[in-house]
Amino acid sequence: MVDISGLIAPKSEIERLMNDIESGELTNVDQIHDRFAIMHANYYTYEWTWAYEMILEYYKLDASKLSAKDIIHIVNEWMNAVVSLDNMVYADAKKEFSLSAMTGFGADGNRKEQEQDFEQVRGAFESNTFVTAVLQHIEVKTELGNELISRLNNII
């Protein structure tokens, strides 16, 4: 895969485009644009093909012998990675709402006034849009993984 001004595409497709320009098969900007549009439309196919190959390579799996148990193992690892990363992001966000982060808020008042001033400016941790998005992401990805594992367990 290569990045051509933000378009991620297989190197082979970019080389084919360049060869077709050099050979005179593509002769105008509209034809080149159309080729880029095709690559853009195929992005998710390219993405999945690349990811699938990387998964097989990383887990040292043979595509012809891939089993439901292999997929369950991969999905469990993926869920653990996603949830662990999101939990780290959540913990980091929580630091932004700690007492030490409230320095400068309500400086002329007591601790309660400091907390109220902080909340007026930054909002409450539990209702912060970023925090709720992280928690929702954890929930959605966990449900997605568990649903797939459940379906795979039915065919084992």
In short:
By secondary structure, the protein is mainly alpha-helical.
What is the straight-line distance between the termini? 35 Å
In total, the number of domains comes to: 2
Question: How large, in whole angstroms, is the Cα Rg?
Answer: 25 Å
Overall residue-averaged pLDDT value: 90
Query: Helices and strands: which structural class?
Result: mainly alpha
Major sheet description: 2 strands, antiparallel
Shape: flat
As a percent range, the share of helical residues equals 55-70%
The strands making up the biggest β-sheet line up spatially as 1-2
Low-pLDDT sequence parts: none
What is the number of strand segments? 2
The proportion of residues in beta strands is under 5%
Number of DSSP helical runs: 6
The arrangement of helices and strands along the chain is EEHHHHHH
Description:
Helix 4 (68-95) packs antiparallel against helix 6 (129-153). It is flat and about 75 Å long. It is mainly alpha-helical. It is 69% helix and 4% strand. It folds into two domains: 1-62, no CATH class; 67-156.
